[in-house]
Write a structure and sequence with these properties.
Layout (H helix, E strand, L loop, with lengths): L4 H11 L3 H21 L7 H9 L8 H13 L5 H19 L3 H32 L8 H54 L1
Helix pairs in contact: 2-6, 2-7, 3-4, 3-7, 4-5, 4-7, 5-7, 6-7
């Protein structure tokens, strides 16, 4: 069950001035993660099967490895030299690698920034707590000791709640990306080997 607007507003007020940057970081992080999940797709078939399908013009997948296999077969039909073919494939496959790297740095940066913003909120909450101790105000209009401690803990929790899922999902995507890069290298080597045999 999703929280209503009043609950969300209460959470926002609890976090103080760091809540707006934390919300922005969360939105940007999930946008970047979803973008990477959608764009870093691999085919269920292995490189050999993809090359065979590309030769028969029967590729149905639009995954990076499938597009790479189709491109490799197309280039192999027009380039006779194995060395030149390998060089051209390396250059062309670099575009696929660049495509997979989009928003990679953004994800890593936001995963690092979220806990730091939470820490900033913690410091702000502790400052409020110590000011309230100086005034001997356990509860006050601005929050007092209880409000300061609550803000300190809440912003830390929010920072970690944004960062940890982003870190875990980001690692899964990175692993998938490394697998695709290995498959691209296999496609290149297989196509070049066929050129040698031909």
């Amino acid at each position: 069950m999703l929280p209503d607007l009043n609950t969300l507003s209460t959470y926002y007020d609890m976090g103080g001035f760091v809540m707006l940057p934390l919300v922005l970081v969360a939105v940007m992080l999930w946008y970047a993660l979803i973008y990477r999940i959608i764009n870093i797709q691999t085919s269920k078939q292995g490189p050999r099967k993809l090359i065979k399908q590309a030769r028969n013009n029967s590729l149905k997948s639009h995954a990076i490895t499938a597009r790479a296999a189709a491109l490799a077969i197309e280039m192999a039909s027009s380039i006779d030299s194995r060395r030149q073919l390998k060089s051209q494939l390396n250059e062309s496959f670099q575009q696929f690698k660049s495509e997979m790297n989009q928003h990679r740095t953004l994800v890593r940066s936001l995963v690092a920034v979220a806990p730091l913003l939470g820490l900033l909120g913690t410091v702000d909450g502790m400052i409020e707590t110590f000011e309230s101790l100086g005034d001997m105000a356990l509860f006050s209009q601005s929050g007092g000791i209880a409000g300061g401690i609550s803000r300190a803990l809440f912003t830390t929790q929010m920072g970690l709640a944004i960062s940890i899922p982003g870190l875990l999902i980001g690692r899964v995507i990175e692993r998938r990306q490394q697998n695709i890069i290995r498959e691209l290298d296999q496609i290149r080597d297989l196509v070049c080997a066929k050129r040698d045999n031909g």
